[in-house]
Amino acid sequence: MQVKVNTPWMAEKAKDYPDILNAEIAFFGRSNVGKSSLLNALLNRKKLAYTSSMPGKTKTVNFYWMHGDFYVADLPGYGYAHKQKNSDRFASLFEDYIAAERMTHAFILIDGRQTVNPLDLQMAETLDYLDIPYSIIITKRDKLNQSEAHKIFTEATEKFTCGKENIYMVSSLKGRGIDALRAAIETMIQLVKPSAS
Q1: pTM score, two decimals?
Q2: Per the domain annotation, does 4 fall within a domain?
Q3: Given the DSSP bridges, would you call strands 105-111 and 23-29 parallel, antiparallel or unpaired?
Q4: Which domain holds residue 107?
């Protein structure tokens, strides 16, 4: 996957979103789950998505225009924002994006070093209710031994309805699982891409 532009289209309101393309893959996750690092790895860019040790840095919906005419949408990390004074603005941003009905597939990122969080389950339930297909990405695989990796994968399989074939374990640092995830996304795009007339 290659990005058409070097900077994302950033929007705080639905009226500022770019025009809908053939498909749109959205990434959700708690703050500090490694979302920006994963996006940089997936998109073959080192610093396209801003990474920071400070949670809650992303405050807009960031749209990355991809070759193949689809968007990758990066949503702000949830969880940390709930503790902030601007939590209402963050809630509105999420609600506006979901209500826009742009997503063709969603990815929920969870930190492999932690247990599945209620906020992750709430997001999955919302996607199920809206009949939006989703997958789970377990990040920071390089931080886990085999036993720990098996434990979080099993927990995700039991708690999410997407099926174990839609659960990916990756390491953005080591590149582990990135090619498989990229290939899965490209397959998803082909499935929703309109046929040539």
Answers
A1: 0.89
A2: no
A3: parallel
A4: 9-192
